[in-house]
Amino acid sequence: MLKLFRATAILEGISYLLLFGFTMPLKYWANILEPNKIVGYAHGGLFIAYVIIAIIVCWKHKWSIKHFIVLFIASLLPFGTFYADKKYLKGA
Predict the structure, then answer these.
(1) Is 16 helix (H, G, I), strand (E, B) or coil?
(2) For 28-77, how does the pLDDT look when each residue is reduced to its tens digit (9 = 90+)?
(3) How far apart are CA 7 and CA 50, in angstroms?
(4) Which residue, 22, 54, 59, 90, shows the most beta carbons closer than 10 Å to its own?
(5) How far apart are CA 11 and CA 87, in angstroms?
């Protein structure tokens, strides 16, 4: 389950960066809406999956609520999931 969580974290981080670094400028500067919609849906699904899997992994590994909060906050910050993967998940 941890391997799935790490993969989800990386994909969620990539989708977040694509959304804000690529498709949002296309939407607002070039008036191209389609990429933003597609990446936005993918990011939303990955975010929900990330949070659900984080809850399951924290429960299975008996991690504290503080650990979950750190993982959750990481999902809200650019590059946060990459940091969380390296700092908290890689050695777990």
Answers:
(1) helix
(2) 999 999 999 999 999 999 999 999 999 999 999 999 999 999 999 999 99
(3) 9
(4) 54
(5) 17
Q: How many domains does the chain have?
A: 1
User: Which tokens go with 41?
Assistant: 């849906």
Tokens coding 52: 């659900």
Question: Which structural domain range is residue 67 located in?
Answer: 2-89
For residue 72, give Cα distances in angstroms to 9, 22, 30, 54, 87.
11, 24, 33, 8, 14
Across 6-10, 77-81, 87-91, least confident range: 87-91
What are phi and psi for residue 41, nearest 5 degrees?
-65, -45
Q: Which DSSP string do the residues of 46-63 spell out, in sequence order?
A: HHHHHHHHHHHHHHHTT-
Dihedral sign, CA of 7, 13, 15, 21?
A: negative
Helix (H, G, I), strand (E, B) or coil at 1: coil
DSSP 3-state assignment of 74? helix
